[in-house]
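testing teh design pipeline on a random one, pls ignore if ur not involved
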């Protein structure tokens, strides 16, 4: 296991714009500004309502002061005093116009001054209006001189700017002070947060960045001063516990890796040893298989020799008898001729006997010669594994003839259905051994309970392949044994001469020597059915790879 490189301090840095302090500063500023604005706007709204009522209150107070003097002036029609009274009213805040009207609509006295024109006038007029007008009814009732009577009206015009200007000034002060207060609180909170949270976390991050990942169990993070009992202290202790656990796990992993490496080395050694042993075993098995196949061939040849010897013995015996008869005829003919007792009838009789014996002798000697020739060809084919071109029917007919001593024991005469012109460029010896094993397998296993035994071999060309179709009408093979019939040494005739190699050799010869494929079907009481596909022309390199010659047939 390769240890991971330690985390450097530069890897423990936090981007300034994404730090907790910066994020908190942004959030606090937004909240503080919003809160300051809301509080200031509420205060300004309340102040606005009060400011709107101030002109009314001031005018009502002014009316309370000038009511009696104004009534007296109008009652006495003192023009000079009236002017002084109105002039004094103009000195009050916001009053820009004052006049006294008599009941006849006649102007008795009038005083006015211009409106204040300064910055903020438009906003003031929008909020409060430009001016407000007030009216005070003057009557004799307030003088106590008889019945109440209407003397006139005191009209007052008030400029709202002195009130609105003060309101706007207070609004600006309130808004600015609220924002400043909110910002001050934000900065104070930010400073506290930095001291109590951000700075300890930065120290903790720096300490964690210094931890050697390859040996975390040696690292111990120190608790920041004053944070032993809060969340940061808990985080430090939990991190130390995890570092210790991580170190223990890494140690166990390293130990496991060392054991695994040792086991791997041991396993590689064991596998190499087992591979060598298996290779030797495979070589030995191949040698044994070759020896078994050769033994099977020799055993088959031995059986053929015995059978052919028995078959040849009969025509040779007849030939010997015919030869003896011919000798007797010649001896009798010579004796009668020398004794001059040979008649024409006796000559014709002896001559007929000689001709019959000669014919019998010729026929049986020819039969023996054919048997020996077929045996010779079959023996050569089975022993040789040379690749050559051959006529399939001729080779298989010779094989069937040579197997007659075995097949007549059943009895059964294999039927061969094959075009006489069908040729193959392959291994005739391997093909004859395959067919011989199939026929002998049927002879030994199939017909113990069959009355009319039958074996049919059909061969035909299918494109670049030859299909060998083999059938018998024997007892068949149960389905549960289909997977085992090609296993070596599996036989149902153990102790009765069966070796269990016949069909195993068939399978190996077809798939390995002839480069073919095989299909098997059978059912109890329905006989067996083999279908074998072989290339018509076996590649010479495949023959050489299997260790056989690729020359022409001798």
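output:
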């Amino acid at each position: 296991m390769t240890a991971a490189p330690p985390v450097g301090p530069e890897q423990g840095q936090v981007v300034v714009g994404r730090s907790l302090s910066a994020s908190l500063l942004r959030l606090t500023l937004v909240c503080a500004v919003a809160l300051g604005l809301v509080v200031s706007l509420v205060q300004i709204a309340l102040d606005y309502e009060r400011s709107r009522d101030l002109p009314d209150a001031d005018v009502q107070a002014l009316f309370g002061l000038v009511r009696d003097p104004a009534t007296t002036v109008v009652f006495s029609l003192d023009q000079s005093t009236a002017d002084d009274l109105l002039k004094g009213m103009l000195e009050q805040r916001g009053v820009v116009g004052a006049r006294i009207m008599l009941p006849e609509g006649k102007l008795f006295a009038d005083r006015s001054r211009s409106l204040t024109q300064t910055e903020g006038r438009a906003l003031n007029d929008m909020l409060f209006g430009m001016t407000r007008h007030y009216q005070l009814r003057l009557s004799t009732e307030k003088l106590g001189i008889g019945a109440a009577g209407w003397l006139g009206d005191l009209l007052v015009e008030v400029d709202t700017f002195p009130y609105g200007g003060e309101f706007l000034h207070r609004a600006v002060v309130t808004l600015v002070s609220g924002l400043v207060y909110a910002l001050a609180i934000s900065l104070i909170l930010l400073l506290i947060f930095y001291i109590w949270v951000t700075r300890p976390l930065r120290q903790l991050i720096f300490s964690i960045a210094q931890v050697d990942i390859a040996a975390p169990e040696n690292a111990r993070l120190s608790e920041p001063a004053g944070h032993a009992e809060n969340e940061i202290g808990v985080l430090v202790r939990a991190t130390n516990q995890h570092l210790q656990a991580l170190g223990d796990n890494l140690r166990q992993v390293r130990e496991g890796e060392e054991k695994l490496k040792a086991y791997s080395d041991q396993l590689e050694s064991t596998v190499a040893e087992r591979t060598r042993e298996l290779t030797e075993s495979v070589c030995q098995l191949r040698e044994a298989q070759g020896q078994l196949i050769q033994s099977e061939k020799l055993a088959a040849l031995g059986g053929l020799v015995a059978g052919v010897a028995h078959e040849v013995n009969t025509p040779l015996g007849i030939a010997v008898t015919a030869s003896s008869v011919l000798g007797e005829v010649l001896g009798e003919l010579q004796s009668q001729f020398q004794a001059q007792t040979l008649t024409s009838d006796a000559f014709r009789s002896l001559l007929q006997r000689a001709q019959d014996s000669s014919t019998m002798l010729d026929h049986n000697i020819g039969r023996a010669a054919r048997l020996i020739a077929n045996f010779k060809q079959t023996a050569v084919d089975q022993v040789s594994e040379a690749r050559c071109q051959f006529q399939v029917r001729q080779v298989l007919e010779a094989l069937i003839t040579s197997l007659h001593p075995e097949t007549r024991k059943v009895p059964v005469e294999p039927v061969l259905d094959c075009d006489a012109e069908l040729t193959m460029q392959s291994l005739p010896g391997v093909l004859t051994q395959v067919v011989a094993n199939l026929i002998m397998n049927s002879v030994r296993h199939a017909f113990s309970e069959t009355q009319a035994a039958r074996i049919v071999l059909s061969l035909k060309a299918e494109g670049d392949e030859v299909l060998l179709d083999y059938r018998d009408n024997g007892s068949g093979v149960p389905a549960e044994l289909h997977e085992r019939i090609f296993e070596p040494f599996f036989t149902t005739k153990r102790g009765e001469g069966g070796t269990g190699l016949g069909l195993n050799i068939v399978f190996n010869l077809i798939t390995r020597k002839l480069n073919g494929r095989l299909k098997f079907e059978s059912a109890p009481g329905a006989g067996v059915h083999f279908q074998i596909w072989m290339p018509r022309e076996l590649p010479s390199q495949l023959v050489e790879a299997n260790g056989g010659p690729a020359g022409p047939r001798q």
